[in-house]
Structure formats: C-alpha cells, structure tokens
Write a structure and sequence with these properties.
The chain has about 190 residues and is mainly β. Helix content is about 5%, strand content about 30%. The protein is built from 1 helix and 14 strands, in the order αββββββββββββββ. The protein has a 4-stranded antiparallel sheet with strand order 2-12-7-9, with no helix packed on it. A hairpin with a 6-residue loop joins β5 and β6 (about 105). The two termini are about 25 Å apart.
Length: about 190
C-alpha cells in the first residue's frame, strides 16, 4: 500500500521541478485555495461507523419551568467487521448554552433519552436492546444500547435506531428565555 503513495509523492515532486521560463512558472491572474484532507485508518476487515442522521434536531417549544421534548433524527450503526461480535452504543451531551447569552446554561444532566426497545435492521441473529427505558444524559459517554453476538459473521449490518419523542429536558429549575443549543455525540464500541 505504500508504493502508490510514494508514486504520487514522486510525481508531485517531479511537477514542482519545472524549468524556469515555462508556462508553469508564470503567475496566474487569479487564484483560490481549498483545503483537502483525508484520514488514514488501520487496514482491517472493517469497523463500526455511526451516523446521527443529520446535523440538527429541534425539540418543541418549552415554557419556563416545564420541559422541552421531541424527536431526534434516527441514528444508525454500520458494522462491516465481518465477525459475530456485538457492540455497545453510547451518547454524550454537552451542556445547553443560550445562543445569545453564553452565561445562560442548562446542564446536560437535565436531559434524558428514551431509546427505542430495540434497533431495526439486525442480521444473522442476536438482539440490540436498550439498557433502560430512560437514560439520564451527561457530558461523558453513557451506555444506552447493547448489541449481542450474531449467530454467523456478516460483512454488513446497518442497525437503525428510531428516536421518536426520544429526548426531554427538565426546565423546572427555571431558564432564561430564548434559544439553547447543545451537541449530542453518538459512539459505538
């Protein structure tokens, strides 16, 4: 796998050695740049990848002293490991911060998550079940679902976790009026 990378680097080095006075040495009339990035991962049979279904979920309007609750986008966990091994799914939530006044904060510990009883899309046996009906959230990873081992190995399973009426934020201690945002992180191991 190193040979193609060296060949590309060699070609790039060769392109930078253009003789003076050629077209490549002339200054362009206009230019722009773009960042290009990639990630190198271990060469294995596959792995676990997660998807939160989108970049935003919005809970319904909430009255001060009440609760904010609503549906989150569906989560998915894709397993391409080619094994019978199960997985555990975790959520971490940052504190909710007021979008106009960063001093107004609702702690993540005021939020709870109601996972569905199980995940959809499982293949070749086993189950994926929630660990409790209601999961108190916090800033660090909190286990919410466990996938048991399969009867046979598979190179592709996409488990989906619907999140209908899945999150509630307790506002009984009071909160400043306005919009709040937090980041919910899904991970699997």
């Amino acid at each position: 796998m190193r040979t193609p990378l060296l060949a590309v680097l060699g070609a790039a080095a060769a392109l930078s050695l253009v003789a003076p006075g050629t077209a490549a040495a002339q200054q362009p009339l206009d230019s722009d740049t773009q960042e290009v990035s990639f990630r190198v991962v271990a060469n294995e049979l596959g792995g676990l990848s997660v998807n939160t279904g989108g970049s935003n979920s919005t809970l319904g309007l909430a009255a001060d002293g009440g609760t904010a609750s609503g549906t989150l986008t569906a989560f998915s966990i894709t397993d391409t490991r080619g094994t019978t091994t199960g997985w555990n799914a975790y959520l971490a939530l940052t504190d909710f911060v007021h979008t106009s006044d960063a001093r107004a904060i609702i702690p993540a510990t005021k939020a709870t998550y109601r996972p569905p009883a199980s995940a959809n899309g499982l293949v070749l046996g086993g189950t994926a079940n929630r660990v409790a009906e209601t999961i108190p959230l916090k800033n660090s990873d909190t286990l919410f679902m466990t996938r048991t081992t399969r009867d046979l190995p598979t190179t592709l399973e996409i488990a989906t976790i619907p999140n209908v009426n899945a999150m509630t934020v307790d506002l009984s201690d009071g909160a400043a009026l306005g919009q709040y945002k937090a980041t919910l992180t899904l991970s699997a191991l």
